[in-house]
Amino acid sequence: MEDPYRRELEIAVAAVRKAADRYVSDGNRESEEKANSVGSYDIVTYSDVEAQESIVSDIRAAFPDDRFYCEESDGNSLTDDRTWVIDPIDGTLSYERGMPIYGTQLALFVKSVPVLSVIYVPVLGEMYTATEVSGAKLNGKPLGNVPDRDLKKCVVSTGDFSRKKQEWRDRHYELIGAMRDEVARIRMLGAACCDFAFFTAGRLDIHIRFVNKLWDFMPGLFLARTAGAYVDEELLEKYSFLLLTQTRAEAESFRQRVLSKVEL
Prior knowledge:
By secondary structure, this protein is an alpha+beta fold.
């Protein structure tokens, strides 16, 4: 079956790779602090801005009527128009400090529904792509079919503490305590793109986070869904809490042994 978004995917992959290789990997890591809702430390680097401008310019040259909703821009919103959601550097603090846990990611929305995503982890040379027709891939090879594991053997990654709501920060702290004796290991990578990419590649068994900005979680969530991951839709809709597991059985076990101890 012909992929209706084949050209968009090709343009997106090229734009992301170019921006990451040219403006991120050898880019300017000087930063400025930026505000957030809870007053925690957050930054933007000059490379964030340069990479974003490069991606937008390359995609706009191919699709001039499309809209853009980007992290380092003001006044954007998701509408029914074709919209590219872009995070030029996800894991900015790690990037600024020289830690190799960061990436560039984007997703294309059509009528407010994601149809394509790209995540590039330049330090590892890993390009993750997803469309419904072509499936989820890592450097062109299909992803999926990760084995089911008992919760005690699971490696769980968790997003950073929320920079939007204090109550989410409090619940997050409680969740880490509730997981302590129930899972094999807990990881906080500090870059959503790596959380979702590594999960989809089978390096992580479970990923949890409170979701906020589309550019932060949607490229990875679409990648994981396309690969066949299980999403607890009730928790996502009711609490904006993402419980992402390789199988439904893992999600049910997590609910019973971890979430039963915490009031979301």
